[in-house]
UniProtKB/TrEMBL annotation:
InterPro entries: MlaB-like_STAS, STAS_dom_sf. Residues 34-110 form the MlaB-like STAS domain. This is MlaB-like STAS domain-containing protein. Gene3D superfamilies: STAS domain. It comes from the Bacteria.
Length: 152
């Protein structure tokens, strides 16, 4: 066996996974956490997994890019087209946790408009709640800690 074949086989078996399904309980969104460097092959695997599990228009699949370090910009056009097709025929798709670097890669690849349609941005409440404060909340106001996964 040649040394290059053994090296290639070793690196293939130790490669970390490119994505992982985070199945929540109940009827919440299905979250796909993406990791590391994503090339064309990894993005195709993600699309295939979404097609398999996100068939119903009632489903919501969120792609979490928080732990992505790099995306091959040459593969982003096909990836964005496949996500748009999936959103039109199956589950709704949203992208969360995009870093400024990954956002710039989408822009460089010419996928800015597709990204704006797919990216989820939280909407701040513009008017305070009309409900009266109950119980201890009147005495000791509660200031919740902002959720890290919603503020991007």
């Amino acid at each position: 066996m040649s040394a290059s074949l053994a090296t290639a086989r070793r690196s293939f078996t130790s490669d970390p996974p490119a994505f992982q399904w985070d199945m929540g309980r109940g009827a919440g969104p299905r979250v796909v956490r993406l990791f590391g460097h994503l090339g064309e092959r990894e993005l195709q695997h993600v699309i295939a997994a979404i097609r398999e599990r996100g068939r119903s228009p009632r489903d919501l699949v969120c792609l979490d890019f928080e732990q992505v370090t790099h995306v091959d910009y040459r593969a982003l056009s096909g990836f964005a087209r496949a996500l748009t097709r999936q959103a039109n025929t199956g589950a709704d798709i949203c992208l969360v946790g995009l870093s400024a670097y990954v956002l710039a890669l989408f822009g460089v690849s010419g996928q800015g408009p597709a990204l704006r349609r797919l990216e989820w941005k939280p909407v701040e409440e513009t008017e305070p709640s009309r409900r009266p404060l109950l119980g201890i909340a009147r005495i000791a106001p509660h200031h919740p800690v902002p959720r890290r996964d919603l503020l991007r």
